[in-house]
Each structure stands twice: as C-alpha cells, then as structure tokens.
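Reproducibility note. Readers wishing to regenerate the assembly model reported in the main text can use the exact inputs given here. Chain order matters: entities are listed in the order in which they were concatenated for prediction.
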Amino acid sequence: MTSNFRAFPIVALLTILSLPLVVMYGFTILDSVTDTEPGSLVPTEFTVHHWRFLWDDTTGRGSVWTATLNTFIFAGSTAAIVCATSLTSAYALSRLNFPARRFFLAGVIILHAFPTITLIIAIFLILQFLGLFDTLIGVIMVKAALELPFGIWVMKGFYDTVPWEIEMAGVQDGASRFIVWHKLVLPQVQPGLSALLIFSFLSGWSEFILPLVLAPGSDAQVLSTYLAYFLLDDSLEVDFNLFKSVGLFYALPVILIYLIFQKKLMNIYGGGSKG
Amino acid sequence: MQLRLKNFTKTFDGLTVIDNLDLTVESGEMMALLGPSGCGKSTTLFTICGIHRMNGGTLHFGERDVSDLPSQKRNVGVVFQNYALYPHMNIRENIAFPLRVQKLDTATINRKVGEIAELVHIPELLGRRPAQLSGGQQQRVALARALVRQPDVLLLDEPLANLDAKLRLEMRSEIRRIQLETGITAILVTHDQVEAMSMCDRIALMKDGKIVQLSAPDQMYNDPVDTFVAGFLGNPPISYLDANVADGQFQTGGGGIAISDALKPKVSGQIQLGIRPEYFGPQFGSGLQGKISFVETQGREDLYNVTLSNGAVLRSIQPSGRRLKLGETVDWGVDADHALAFTTDGARI
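Running the prediction on these inputs yields the following structure tokens for the assembly.
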C-alpha cells in the first residue's frame, strides 16, 4: 500500500471540508468575468464590464489606482516600521539587561492581547488633536503601533534561539556589540524577519477598521475602504459582480504573496529555525 | 605571555563565588583549571576573557594591566564548549572573521587563514559550512578561529566535552600539539582529570572557589594535599581505610599494613589511609584478608573490589588473566611506600 493511498481518507475528508470555500472562490472568479441570468447558476455570457472600475470612476470616490497606491504605501510603511522597531527592541529585550526589562516584557504581552477596537475612540481623539486625522500618516502610525507588540514578541522568540556563545565568540574575536549584532546575530534571525515583514505587510493590506474610522475621506482611502463603499453607500446601485471583481483585485496580491512566500511564513509558527 | 590573576574576587547577586584567588600562568605554559561543577573554574575563565567583570583584584597579561579592558581589547582567544561557530558563514569566513574585524587586507587574511588551516589540519574543509562538519572538525575550526589573530592567551572551556570517546582521545593530543607548536599560553577548563593530566603542564585543582592544590600532574597524583585532591585524580579512584597506629603498623579491618620509614615519625592514633588500586595486590605480599565483592573486566586489566572484615572496600587493579571469582577470599598486601596517610578530617600527613 503506497503512502498516497493510505492518506486517501484524510485527503477525502479535507476535500469535502474545503469544497464550499473552493466553490466560493470559483464563483467569485467566474462571476467577475461573466453575466448570469437571475436565479440561475450557469453563466450566459462573457464580459469584462465588471472590471470597468479599473478605468472608470464608478463610485465617485476617485480612481481605484489611487486607493491601490495608498494601500501599498500604508501596508509597506507599516511593515517597515514594525520590522525596524521589532528588530532592535526585541534584541534589547532578549539580550540586554536594562532597568524595568520585566515591566516592558509584561507590557508587550498585555498590549498584544489588547483588543484594538476598544482603543479606537481614544486614538481618534489623539489623531484629531495632532492634526493627523484623515491622513495616511496618522493611520500608518496607529497601525504600526498596534502591530508592534506582536512583532517584538515574535522577534524576541527568534533572538532567544541564537546561542549566547555566538555573541561571546564574536566579542572575543574583537568585534563591537553592534558588529556582532549586525554580522553574526542578524543572519540567524533573518528567517523570522522575512516572515514578520510579510505578515505585517499582509496585516496592513487587509486592515479595514482603522482606515475606515481614522481616514474616512477619499484622499487617504485604501482598497478595503474603497471596496466597502460599494456596500455602505446607499446612493450607489448594488452591483455584486462589480463588487466581486473589486474584491478579487484586492485579494490578488495577498494570494500571490502567500503562494510565493508560504515556506517563510511557516517559520513564524515554528518559533525560529537554525542557519 | 605570562598571565597573572591577583586577589581575584567574583560575586553574583551578593553571593561570593570566588574569593581572593591568585593564579599565575607562565608564558607558554598550559594550565588546567580542574574541579567539580560549580567550583568556579568557568567563572574564572570567563573573567579572564572579559565576559564577566571582576568584583575585586587585578589581571595582567605580561606587563599589561587588562583588569578593566573590555573583551575586544584583551586579545584573548576562546574555544567554547559548543564551539560557537557562525552557522551562516563557511569555514573560511569563520576563521577570517577576527581578521576581517581588524580590517586587514584580503591578501593578508587569505594567507593567515591558509596558514592556520594548515596548522590544525583542515585546509580541505575551508569551503564547507559548520553544519557539514563532524564534532572533531568543528573543534579544529574553533581552535583555528581562536588562534588566527595570535592572541596573548588561549582559553579552552571544556573543549572535549561534546566529543565521543575516540575523538576525545585524538583531540586531546591535537590540542596539546597545536599549543606546543604555537607556544601559546593556554588555560584549559575541565572537570575530567584525565584531560587535565594528559594535556597540561600544571593543574590548579579548584573547590568552592578556591585553588586547593596547584602542581604538575604527576606530583599532584603522588603527593596530594588532602583527600579531596587524592580522590579527584586517578581512575579507578583511590580507596580510603580508617586505620589505627599500633605495634608499628596501621591496624585496620582484615589485618595490618606496614608503615613506611618516611611516615613512621609522623603518624599516631586514628588516621585515614588512602591506597590507590595499583598499590594493592598479591605482588605486594600479604597481610590484608578480604572477600572479592566486585569484578570488572577492562580487557588489559581487571578491577577488583575487596571487602575487608570491617566492611571497608579496597580497589585493586591487576593484569588480566587471574580470573578470580566473586566471593573468593584473598590475602593481599599493600605497597607501604605508596600508602598515603591523612588525618581524620582529610589533611595530608
């Protein structure tokens, strides 16, 4: 009996369980390029009409390309800030003996567990006070701050797996602490860093509540709020096929990233890997 | 280069681990810091290389006072127990790292790496990664990396602990050869008396943060200052007997043992007698009766435990082939000149 054959019951079970998802994905893709009679499942004609949002302003809220650019800026800068800060602060928490280290460690955990939505009013007020309400920078800062505890905690886990002796050996070899960190420790946590980079980018890409509440205007809108407008705005006639196309457009980068980087993303759950 | 540690004191969280320790390692000498775990030998090593700070005392390399210098400026080479090779670099880059930090030019680096690889016999491994090497090879790389920038002192922290028995034997002589060839002053930290005795010029035997005895291996073996030292060196270990001095003999369970001329004027009353396994057996006549309570065949030799009538156990190591059985009664003698006498609280008489 081959191992493939033995795995057959599991494969069958998983197929049944994931079938609804596959069907949904299938129809999302299908409906975005076809028209279907009401009440029927079988499409009747091929059309690119539902993708008109790519060249027309269908919502009156500006081009989808501006929103896409905004989303890239939003997710990219969030990921950059999160990674840069986590990389350094996690090293400090893992290795350096500074005052109130335990307090900071506990603080990171508590912040990690804190539900974002409970903070939204306070954040709204602060942003308004700072004059950053309805700006991309404001949302970026908030999103990065809320992502940080997770990032720091993950990176600390990776730093903790690097043996002390490697750093001691580096110091004995005459390297400064900074060179030791940069040349000897950083390469060991690199898998964690790439995973965190992708993760925080995806998290920024899919963020909805923060841009919706903190940047409701059309200048700073991202794809998630752009997409939501098709449902939220009563003045627009609801066109579900259009909505599906925009959704597909929005999900495409995420699917691509997952396909390309799935191995690296698994690292983050492994808690680190060696060399 | 001579290394001098004076009045060295180290405390961790108020607990004094090492109190007023003095240690001088002569130039070109290989010194072993030997002792049971927790005796402070690794702490001493890490203080010498600058990872731990001293709470008191001074450290000199030759005439240079390095007590307050950071590790980077001390010029010490360290080989760690787990070798601490950099996993993301190949062997050449590992060995070159200390030189690259000094910003030497590539030609010099390549020449020096080549030389040191030659010395530790790994020139064919330079292109590999640490994970692709065996334990012994990693050990050689770690040595090469520690030696490549010609440190004043080489420190070895339990370098053989992670190797299997055969490799350990090989690396023992290899490390000694490399140390002798480079003429570097070296300190070896170990809890294995065989390593210390076979590799080093002198041994500092430590206990509870103090040096109990510091002397050459054979001297420490034959002339220990107390029962702790005598018991730490030697495998199979020395055995002790409670004895009484009477009628010009050590009186103990199962018979009497002659007193050597050297000891005669010094001993009286109740003492402890230390007898190493190689000095107890039929070749030394007779006088001690007992029963064989344990036999261990070691190939070349057999090890016997002999239980005397008062319950004390003496070990004896004999050339194999005698084929004595468990429970057999024997009447063996002790080499009086090599019996070690201690007071009842362990000090050497």
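We highlight two features of this model. The mean pLDDT of chain B is 90. DSSP finds eight helices and 20 strands in chain B.
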